Amino acid sequence: MSVELAFIIGVVVLLLLAIKFRVSAFISLLVTGVVIGTLSGMSGLDVIDTITNGFAKTVGSIGIIIIFGVMLGKYLEDSKAANKMALGAVGMVGEKNSSIAMAISGYLVSIPVFSDVAYVMMAPLIKAISKKTRIPLAVLGVSLASGLLATHVYVPPTPGPLAAAGLLGIDIGRAILYGGFAAILMTLFGWAFAQFVLNKKGDTFISEFDKGAKGEMLASAEEEVSEKDLPSMFSSLFPLLLPMILILLNTTTKAIFPEESTIVRIMSFIGDSNIALAIGVVACILLLGKRIGKENVLKTMDGALSEAGSIIFITASGGALGEILKASGAGDAMAQAISKSGLPFILIPFAIAALLKIVQGSGTVAVVTAATLSAPLATQLGMDPILIFLATGAGARSFCHVNDSFFWVFTKMNGYDMKTGLRTLSFANPFMALGGLVATFIVSLFV
């Protein structure tokens, strides 16, 4: 059987397992690797060796990074540092511009904190702001979601883009720079939809909280936000920014100074992604540990390890599939077929990620899987893998609907029914995806 046909059959198997039978992404990716390898003519032992080697290599490259990234997010979440960032953004731009403040807050908060959790944490804040400023809740909610969902697919140490960068062999500092730029455009496009489309519709999006006695929930939310004892802005932002700055400095010094220089050697150590995130976790404990409590510091650490495990397994299975694509030649064959077809290469990883996102719901799984399947394009077509990274992120924001947990968090926390969720959050996502594609095109002009 030709390797091209083996690849197509493997992708069909992947979609059937993940969508039709709802098998976990971890199992689906491993089974797909076995199918493609076997149908491509690899022996059983070669398939097993290739899968285990790819799995181990991926865990070794990003396993510790994911653990510390999740741990950092959990500490910022438990200490209410995310709420402080949001209030600081509102104070910076003024209450009348609260929608852009929410977009900025979402952009920052979702880097360390999982987007679903971040929205739950900040929902009382947007309800209180909506009541005080008379800005429609839908406008504030979608603005916040735009920032949250943008960095969720683009900026390490968020697990999805961190895993994609590892699978594509992209320097983490470079992924932060370009992913951060793309996330800005994606956030702005989503905010623009909220500000200029939803805002014109005013109060047509009725929340359950606006009806009868439930309106009292807004007052209690405002009280909770205003009276909450939050950490200082420095304590909230410093543990998040410190590891990112160290990683970026590591990338920058390597480009500027000789390899043997002292500053490069120092930054290569403290700016290594593993060490930088560990330093960020230590900074969190030192600055925010008292707020969390000694016992809870250890509980949070244990909880983060449990959460990181599933992310690492999915990512590593993606790495195993990537090794199969390399060893079997299936990935290279498909890359050559695409190059001959004349299709714009950026649209391939975008389309794969978009399809996966729409049918199975998880942006993280869409990014990881699309990056794995598209990685051979970088080598065969002579393209910079950062473009695949950006295109997959754009595709992973194609549409958010009923099979995405964030959709239900958004609707329930805002008191919306399913139809209202589709008319607000879901329709905002294609605009966000367009922002990501625009960013990808801009970057393609310079790399």
UniProtKB/TrEMBL annotation:
Transmembrane segments annotated in the record for this chain: 5-21, 27-48, 55-76, 100-123, 135-155, 175-198, 237-257, 263-289, 345-374, 386-410, 422-446
GO molecular function list: gluconate transmembrane transporter activity
Record keywords, A-Z: Membrane, Transmembrane, Transmembrane helix
GO cellular component: plasma membrane
Pfam families noted in UniProt: GntP_permease (PF02447)
Xref: NCBIfam families: gntP
Full protein name: GntP family permease
Species of origin: Irregularibacter muris
Lineage: Bacteria, Bacillati, Bacillota, Clostridia, Eubacteriales
